[in-house]
Amino acid sequence: MSQLKYVFIVALALCFVQCNTPDKKEKKGFKYEHKKQEQKSKKEEKEAVIVPVDLNNKGIGPVTALTFPAGIDTGLAEKGKAIYMEKCTACHMATKKLVGPALKGVYDVRSPEWVMNMIINPIEMLKKDPIAKALQEECNGAVMIDQRISQEDARSIAEYLRTL
Predict the structure, then answer these.
(1) The dihedral of CA 122, 80, 116, 153: what is its sign?
(2) How far apart (Å, rounded) are the C-alpha atoms in residues 7 and 9?
(3) For a Cys-Cys bond, which of 42, 50, 88, 125 suits 84, CB 3.0-4.6 Å?
(4) Both ends of the chain: CA-CA distance in Å?
(5) 82 Cβ neighbours under 8 A, 6+ residues apart
(6) Burial class of residue 38 (count of CB atoms within 10 Å of its CB; 0-12, 13-18, 19+)
(7) pLDDT tens digits for 131-151?
(8) CA–CA gap between residue 72 and residue 163 (Å, rounded)
(9) d(Cα 115, Cα 106) in Å, to the nearest integer?
């Protein structure tokens, strides 16, 4: 009986060793290898794209001069808000980047002419304007769609943006 126990223990040990020995044969089927990817910190990502602040850049388009009056034209701003809510909110929020940049305080970093030309003429702006190109890169290549907004409607949106 003791020999039977001994044989059983040896057989069990051999089985255990065999199960833990790596198989040198390639196994067929799906193989997934985990690879650690280098991830950039948010600070590094922001440093990668530098969007210049240039209040002298008027952009590319029909608007070459625009001076805002001291006070806000509330009627014009209300009209602009309605157009903004209909055509712009899919990509822009006031205080957070969505697809496009946040628009609150846009006149602290862009001229009114630039903003209006971007609204009216986004395709050409994205092709030729250095600020528009940098913004597109910052927004992961997102393209601002030409909403076919008239200069009059763009002016009302521009007035609304002053209220944000």
Answers:
(1) positive
(2) 6
(3) 88
(4) 91
(5) none
(6) exposed
(7) 999 999 999 999 999 999 999
(8) 8
(9) 8
Q: What is the residue whose two structure tokens read 């985990």? A: 34
Residue 103 has which token pair?
């628009």
Q: Residue 121 is which amino acid?
A: N
The whole-number pLDDT of residue 39 equals 62
**Residue type for 81, please?**
K
d(CA 144, CA 137): 12
Contact 88, 157 (CB under 8 A): yes
Nearest to 51 by CA among 3, 114, 7, 93: 114
pTM: 0.69
Nearest to 83 by CA among 112, 119, 135, 124: 119
